[in-house]
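Predict the 3D structure for this chain.
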Amino acid sequence: MIPGAIGIGLLVEQAGLYRLRSFIIFSSVVLCAQLIAIVNPVVFPNKGAVDPGLPNASLPWRIMTRRDQWDWAPLEAITRKCGLPAPKIAYLGGGRSFYQPQIERPWVAAAASTALATPVYAEVKWLWRYEEGAIDWQTVMANADASDVVLTAPTFVGEMNDTDNLYNEHNSEFVARLSGDPLFQKPISVAMGRFEPIELLVFVKKSLPCSSAEHAADQR
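Done. Predicted structure below.
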């Protein structure tokens, strides 16, 4: 874009178009439209999730829209209370703030801020993605049972134009299956996001020295 803008500017100067009244008016209108596109999302920030508008990019007037960032610190607090400094975490679903690097962030930040000889990190596993084809519940549940903590967000859809909805189409069924799994306690509900909070359900193994009731009380 920058070389293109420089080239157009040179052509305009060589042709003397910048002296024309009509060209000045046109340039002023384009400049004002660009300023409105940049300033409007800042002055009037969105209060809910906003789709980017294109399958693999964002519309120019949505570049400055406010994106919700999930704080995964409550998950780290839950696992720490359960005596898990380096938990095995599995999750089903996906989105801009709901994917492996984001989930791992509290442990990475803690390791970076301390001088431990051997830093501890969470081991996070994505149970299924739509590119793999039809979901294999037997494999998904086997991997979930091998984890200490399992996450999903039953009402989360994500950005429709960014295929998030495909990653999250089985979240509700996963909750039903986990709720009937004798290895897990009742889920802990955690509100994720600030603008339009999403309910994240955290399933903890019954074998761990902590209860979902205690965590639910902490959340309140």
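The radius of gyration is 24 Å.
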